Amino acid sequence: MQSSLGIESRLRVFVYLMEQDDPKKCTSAKLLRMNLARQIRRRSVIPNRAIVLNPSASQVLLPSDRAHVQNGGLVAIDCSWNKADEVFISRFHGLNRRLPLLMAGNPVNYGRIGRLTSAEALAASLMITHFFDEGKKLLSVFKWGQTFLTLNNDPLMDYSSANDPEAIATVEESYFGLRGTSQASHN
What we know:
It is a single chain. The protein has one domain. Helices cover about 35% and strands about 10% of the residues. It contains seven helices and five strands. It has helices at about 25-35, 65-70, 85, 120-130, 130-140, 145-160, 165-175, and strands at about 15, 40, 50-55, 75-80, 95. Helix 4 (about 120-130) packs antiparallel against helix 5 and helix 4 (about 120-130) runs parallel beside helix 6 (about 145-160).
């Protein structure tokens, strides 16, 4: 079966698009147009076994979440950074996970820790769970995609080797001097 990412697999990448941002700048909308993600139109249809990227989640994404990504899919909740607190006040269906700290490569939030676009968050999640080629493919449609990879190459490789939340926290602290603050997928 040919996936939306153009490889043989059952891997499914979803976006719950809340349409709170300029559609011309929305990375999720571009992923949808390029058939690199599928749109979820109602919260209630988020797959129960999918990993849902949620900056308010108590659990961090781990490489061991790979089976959940492969079997249930990966979901970005695309909302405005200005409304994130409102959006993530309640839990979403699925297995909610926060991303470990990473640096934004997008032009709007370049260099800011944790201010990722949905495309950056999805790609990072895929790479942490050992879907390296799929993550790179998502970023390849953005002029700044390689910048994100260059900025975060070492942390992404270290996160993808972490065995538990404590190892993730150690990586976060070693690169960013911070431990486990919220990071979301927006825009």
